[in-house]
Amino acid sequence: MNNQIEIQLSAKRKEKPSFSDLKFGKTYTDHMFIMDYSREKGWYDPRIVPYQPITLDPAATIFHYGQTIFEGLKAYKNENEEVFLFRPEENFKRLNRSSVRLCIPEVDEDLALEALVKLVSIDRDWVPDVKGTSLYIRPFTISTEPNLDVTPSQKYRFMIIMSPVGAFYKEGMNPVKIAVESEYVRAVRGGTGNAKTAGNYAAAMLVQEKASAAGYSQVLWLDGKENKYIEEVGSMNVFFKINGEVVTPELSGSILEGITRKSVIELLKHWGVPVSERRISMEEVYEAHQNGQLEEAFGTGTAAVISPIGELFWNGEIISINDNKTGELSLKIYNTLTGIQIGKEDDPFGWRVKVE
Amino acid sequence: MNNQIEIQLSAKRKEKPSFSDLKFGKTYTDHMFIMDYSREKGWYDPRIVPYQPITLDPAATIFHYGQTIFEGLKAYKNENEEVFLFRPEENFKRLNRSSVRLCIPEVDEDLALEALVKLVSIDRDWVPDVKGTSLYIRPFTISTEPNLDVTPSQKYRFMIIMSPVGAFYKEGMNPVKIAVESEYVRAVRGGTGNAKTAGNYAAAMLVQEKASAAGYSQVLWLDGKENKYIEEVGSMNVFFKINGEVVTPELSGSILEGITRKSVIELLKHWGVPVSERRISMEEVYEAHQNGQLEEAFGTGTAAVISPIGELFWNGEIISINDNKTGELSLKIYNTLTGIQIGKEDDPFGWRVKVE
Ligand SMILES: Cc1ncc(COP(=O)(O)O)c(C=O)c1O
Ligand SMILES: Cc1ncc(COP(=O)(O)O)c(C=O)c1O
């Protein structure tokens, strides 16, 4: 394979939206990265081209059998106009793990990272510099062969698109209200829960819509076998601080291995805060709450970094946490992680990648 | 909404493949049906146009969050050049049930059927007339709004494409070998198992590939909670004849409500053959086999109509059924159903729709 990334710059640059009033995922930058795959050639023609629509046969398997996986990460710009990525190599590792589960060919992680850095560098002006904003990056692979047989596609396309996004917390951190779902299930062991693939998100929409209508910002999923053990939130992993110990559900195969989750665990260990990855039931969380030992709860994910949970609604009961206020530890983790991401704090773990 | 279907005929007709040597889902007819949806307009612009590629923004939610559903049915042509559809209204009913689960707007079933009949009529020459062949029809809806937020799309496209397919049984009915899967899971109650949506098929590919490599043509899925009860085969529902009674797994919410399944149940009741829809475990099938009471087993689906099962591989044991030969009842059902479909048998249930 020819690993040389070809670059075709856009003749006309689009007008940028106001960086102080960005909506999530609505505007896209001037360029995108594309690379195609066929059984015979492997991955070929890596190229950066102007952002543009793509053309597919209506029988392309992506439309019918959903062979697709994606990633999500961000680029941050600070006051000194420095641009950083946060652990991007972890995203490409996870992309490849997801690919294996979906019978999609893996990409060369080094090439993907090189392409990403080049792309961000070319569209550097699109990385917003207003406090809390960032450039959201979406690598993804779709199956493109026209074929109605239910069998892995012979052709794929890997792409990276990017979109400037606003601050998650415009008026300081607000703890969220989350509904615990006991009927519908997101994923089970042996399913695709630990892969970042479209079907997981499509399956969750109906429940998410119901939760939103009832005033809850997200859904907390329980395991598919017993409807007992905590899995994760719509697009966040979840942590509980109980009597001084931080607990997060273990990687059982049915939850996503969040990169923020991983970073939080590493940070807590570094600080000497007791943290354990294990099964944890809603029962246990409820009892800890009743005994006054449920000190904090928060979600972790690329979008919010840390999202304090103020209230859980479960089996008709409201479990309110830390008086609906952001916990001390949650805030400390948030400040440290965002500080590392933006280049304001030391980076003892080497998590930052600078884009020149 | 303007329900008038606009028709734009193709200036150039494609060369047709040889109808005695067709592969599944590789060639498409001259025309396709399209209808678009927006929140403001509802479904609009129903139209039949030349078969052609479609163009989408790379941020279209179909590529990321997989909001999509599909259907599969067939048109048959007999020696008198008559063309029939088999219970097409059932497919559009199921399409709409799947849509609700995936937060996709429902289509007008009458309009969809009218469009389908018009489309088949226009591409009537594409319905192959060689024994056992048919025109496979694929209605599907995809979400098209460019938006990286995980929320139901505001825009959709409904399409119907068609492909001539060869005979399933070229050299008579061959019983298939099927591997029972006890680790991976296809769907659970509360999941999307009873919706015909891409994610279910994407999730199954890895296991299907392993089964194929081991010499099994399909996978038999067990329930996601206990890994005990029989669900369905890759793209077929499943029936067992045990000691004179025909048993098929009940519609638990995690299996597809097959139209062939429904027709087989109605046919058996019509004939006075005892048939029940209930939970059935692999344990029970195994015991029936040990006691010599497992008389027949077969899958049902649009592709094969009836597919006799000659062997099940479960927990390291081979369960061979009826000496690997097609059972009497299986054959009778097959002959009756295909006879009705092609217009050779009476149609006491009114299942046929003639295309003029
Ligand atoms: C289902 C799910 N869980 C967890 C996460 C958090 O992962 P990360 O920290 O890598 O963003 C995400 C999103 O990104 C997700 O989609
Ligand atoms: C998962 C699954 N189950 C069962 C069936 C059988 O349904 P039908 O008889 O309507 O073709 C199909 C396919 O069509 C299917 O995809």
From TrEMBL, chains A, B:
**GO molecular function term, any single one:** branched-chain-amino-acid transaminase activity
Name of this chain's protein: Branched-chain-amino-acid aminotransferase
What family is reported?
A: Belongs to the class-IV pyridoxal-phosphate-dependent aminotransferase family.
Q: Which UniProt keywords apply?
A: Amino-acid biosynthesis, Aminotransferase, Branched-chain amino acid biosynthesis, Pyridoxal phosphate, Transferase
The record's section on InterPro entries has: Aminotrans_IV, Aminotrans_IV_CS, Aminotransferase-like, B_amino_transII, BCAT-like_C, BCAT-like_N, BCAT_family
Question: Which CDD domains is this protein grouped with?
Answer: BCAT_beta_family (cd01557)
Gene3D superfamilies linked to this entry: 3.30.470.10, D-amino Acid Aminotransferase, subunit A, domain 2
UniProt keyword DNA repair present: no
Upper taxonomic lineage: Bacteria, Bacillati, Bacillota, Bacilli, Bacillales
Name the cofactor(s) required for activity, per the record. pyridoxal 5'-phosphate
**Secretion signal, residue range per the UniProt entry:** none
PANTHER family linked to this entry:
BRANCHED-CHAIN-AMINO-ACID AMINOTRANSFERASE (PTHR11825:SF44), SUBGROUP IIII AMINOTRANSFERASE (PTHR11825)
Annotated pathway: Amino-acid biosynthesis; L-valine biosynthesis; L-valine from pyruvate: step 4/4; Amino-acid biosynthesis; L-isoleucine biosynthesis; L-isoleucine from 2-oxobutanoate: step 4/4; Amino-acid biosynthesis; L-leucine biosynthesis; L-leucine from 3-methyl-2-oxobutanoate: step 4/4
Q: What EC number(s) does this enzyme carry?
A: 2.6.1.42
UniProt keyword Cell inner membrane present: no
Q: Which reaction does it catalyse?
A: L-valine + 2-oxoglutarate = 3-methyl-2-oxobutanoate + L-glutamate; L-isoleucine + 2-oxoglutarate = (S)-3-methyl-2-oxopentanoate + L-glutamate; L-leucine + 2-oxoglutarate = 4-methyl-2-oxopentanoate + L-glutamate
Q: Name one Pfam family in it.
A: Aminotran_4
